[in-house]
Structures are given as structure tokens and as C-alpha cells.
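Handoff note, outgoing to incoming analyst
You'll be picking up this chain. Sequence as last confirmed:
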Amino acid sequence: MATIKDIAKKSGYSISTVSKALNGYEDISPEAKNKIIRIAEEIHYIPNLRSKNLSRREKSSIAFIFSGLKKDGAADGIIYNIMAGAYEYATNMNYDVQIYTTNVSKQKEISYYRFCKERNIEGAVVQGISTDDPYFTELVNSNLPCVLIDICTDNQNVGFISIDNVKAAQEATNYLIGIGHRNIAMINGRPNAFVSQLREEGFRKALEEKNIAINEKWIVSGDFSRGKAYNKAYKLLQLYPEITAIFCASDLMALGVYEAAEKLGISIPNDLSVVGFDNIPLASFISPKLTTVKQDMYKIGYEAAKLLKSIIKGEKIERHKIMDYELLIRDSTKVIHRQS
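Most recent structure output, in case you need it:
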């Protein structure tokens, strides 16, 4: 990585002058300042924003990097619970915590890796980032220790924590099959999200093992959005009234299915069984209470930070951690006569 010494050597100016130019001091000539900044950009110099404070002892820092922080997602509390769990462990271990939330426009300004290096961050917990994000690839291929939530990758500096999403989705779908359903649709999350791919794999596996034909038109993407899931469910239930059950890859999307069913005069669970995923707080308060896959997001966040600390310290540990889940049977599903 380029340093101030490299800039000084190439520019012919002293380290002190280079430092002043990079930190916006006015007591150097515009010509010198412009030359130094130009060279810094040419050699891809990344400043350490905390270098001014190195004369005093500081805590180590870790980052939480999240994507998709939207108003619609506030209802599920998933990011909050992950952050709360991770923060609890980090502060107990005397780590400073910095948070970086991002979206498409922000990604054009600064990469995740650069964000961490500028702030002298030792490692990061990452959640909600798509695997096709180029900045994600840059991050996991760097030497920065990371723990990914619901994304699996093979790198010695990267850990992975999740439930077994394939098994959980398969169990949820098998439950619907076991109570008589054969015409089962799925509303999945974002197509390029690793967790969506795994949950769809489990859904398909359950149907295939029971020799139930998969109707590709009944598998749609709701982007983990309540509003988009409402639109997709409304169209599905209008076009295919023979559907008797819908498996949703998130509880938030299941709420969208509830709204679509109500709009169409379809009774849950008498006419339509619905299964969600996550067990967000609203799942046990809506009527009927939602059958769903429970995962403890607070514990996942806590264990993610714990795993990150072990990777930072270079400990020899298993870096892929699979957490427990539970299928909670509530009131949104109902036994029906077996369909042919």
C-alpha cells in the first residue's frame, strides 16, 4: 500500500510538506499542493483517517457493513437485531464500532475496503451485500478479516455464519406438503442474494423428493419487500386460483401476501396457507399468527462479532458457523384434503 513516504520520494517534497498538502493546510504553495495530490491519486494512496491520533492509545476498531437499509425493512428489525448482538460482543471486548450503510449511489463514492482502510479498521461484519457487488469481491479478496452473514465464500481471512437455509426451507415446504398441499407457490427474495438461492433450493428439493411437479411460474421474486410481495402475490392468486399455499422467503413478504389475500377476499388459512421466514416480532401479532422459520438474529450478530475477533487474532478455528433454527407452527396454515 502506498504511503506518505512514497509520495514524498516521487514529488521531491518533504514528508512534512506532503502531510500538510494532504490535510488541507494553507501554508504551502498551490503548485506544490496540486502536484502532491496528483501523485497521491496516481499511486492510489489511501489516507488513514485516524493517523492523527496514533500518539495516544486507542481501542481497536471493527466495522459493521450493511446494505438495503430502507424504510420498508424497518418493520422486520433484522438489521437492528444483528447490529445489537454484534455491538454487545464488540463493546464487551473493548472494540470501537463503526457502521457503514450503503446503497447503489453510495457504492460509487467509496468501496467497503477503502472505508475500512481509511479508518484503520481491523475487520468487518458484513450483511445484506449481493454477491455480484464488485466492492464485495474486492473486500473478500483483500487481507481484511471479515465475517459474512448468510453469504458463503472460501477465503482464509473470511468467516461465514448462517442457519442451514436449504434445510430450513425444505422443512417448511415439507410441512405444507405434510398437511395436504400440493399446489404450493414461493415468493423469494432478491434473485442475486445468496440466501435467496439457498431457500429456493430447499423449496425445490422438498417438491422434487415428493414427486410434486414444480410450476416455474409459481416461483417469483419479491425482493424482500412487503410492497413487491403484495404485487406478486396478488397476480399469482388472480391468475392461479388453484394455489393453496405460499412459502415466503421472509416474514416481511408474507405480510404482503396477507394484504393481497385480503384484497382478493381469500381467507388465511381456510383458503390459503402461508409460511414465512425469520420470525420477526409482527409474525406473532398479526391475525392469523404466522407460521414461520425462527432464526435468532441477535445471537447471529453476537456470534458473528465473536468469530471476527478470532479471525483477527489469527486463531485456528472453524470459520463456517451454522446456527440453529426452528419451524414455528402457528395459525396461518391448515390441513386440507390431499390434492392429486
